[in-house]
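SEQUENCE-TO-STRUCTURE ENTRY
===========================
What this section holds: a protein sequence and its matching fold, both as plain text.
Question of interest: how does this chain fold, as expressed in backbone structure tokens?
***
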Amino acid sequence: MYVYEVNITIESELENKYYKWLKVHVEHMLEFKGFLFAEIFKNDQILVRYMLDSEQSYKDYINNQAHKMRGEVPPEFIGQFEITRKDYQLP
């Protein structure tokens, strides 16, 4: 099992609207080959944890789909958030 995590910090006044958009975005992500499921956590930040079947599926996503998906952020959110990402293999 392979994990891809996205940590998002967004301006508080936009958080609820962003969260609604994010839920739809995550559903689209789960259509990609190898994406099994995702969890969304909200605290000080928003964390999306995607579970994939393999590192190769993650690499395929990064090489072929990531640029397009990252470009789908609505213009109203551009410049209003910070994102960090990490990926790792579960033991």
Notes: The domain at 2-89 is CATH 3.30.70.100 (Alpha-Beta Plaits). The CA atoms of residues 1 and 53 lie 5 Å apart. The mean pLDDT is 95.
